[in-house]
Amino acid sequence: MQPKWLDWVQRLQAIAQSGLAYDPHQYDRERYEAVREIAAEMMAESGGCDIAPIRDLFASQAGYATPKIDTRAAVFRGDTILLVREREDGAWTLPGGWADIGESPSAAIVREVREESGYETRAAKLLAVYDRNLHGHPPFPFHAYKMFFRCELKGGAPAHSGETTGVDWFAEDHLPPLSLTRVVPAQIHRFFEHYRHPDWPTDFD
User: Where are the alpha helices (DSSP H) in the chain?
Assistant: First the structure.
């Protein structure tokens, strides 16, 4: 469960962003901008970081605020799962990333796997739709939903990308250090269970 202060930050930022999206009266605009500034101050103080980039990040968000969508792939080969090593933090994760506008979730995940690992896959089943706030990930400024797909391996060969520096297959009991902003151990263990029980329904929340 995420810390309460982060829940407050996300909600305040969303209120400010949505309010500013509807061309408010000048007095209301100033109020919404003040709310956004409070959210940035809380994030900087509680996260122990500089407020300037947080202020810029929040100001760059436009339109009605909704959760962001992160897609991730569970690709199995025998008793192993495909992981990629993130260039950003040097830790490992299921291949994936933010869904792009104009792209279906299944197309997004197939593209992400190809770009990050070099492998060609087919999205076979939606394993889970998780609220990021409820699954033990480190703090993140925005509310996000995570969509996990089981993808079937079709071909290709391991290849690094601009975002990844490693591609490998790992057994459930020999997982490497994970990039916890992207995936946590409990999720990978759950997807191994899904792999062993293909008739299980999709998890949610």
Answer: 4-20, 26-47, 51-59, 105-117, 185-196
Which residues fall within 8 angstroms of residue 135, CB to CB, at 6 or more apart? 146, 184, 186, 187
Could you read off the pLDDT of 171-192 as tens digits, one per residue? 999 999 999 999 999 999 999 9
Domain ranges, ordered by start, for the chain: 4-59, 68-204
Contact (CB, 8 A) for 118 and 162: no
DSSP letters for 170-184? EETTS---B-TTT--
Return the pLDDT at 96: 97
Nearest residue to 71 via CA among 4, 128, 154, 139: 128
Annotation: CATH topology of 68-204? Nucleoside Triphosphate Pyrophosphohydrolase (3.90.79)
- Say how far apart CA 28 and CA 51 lie, in whole Å: 23
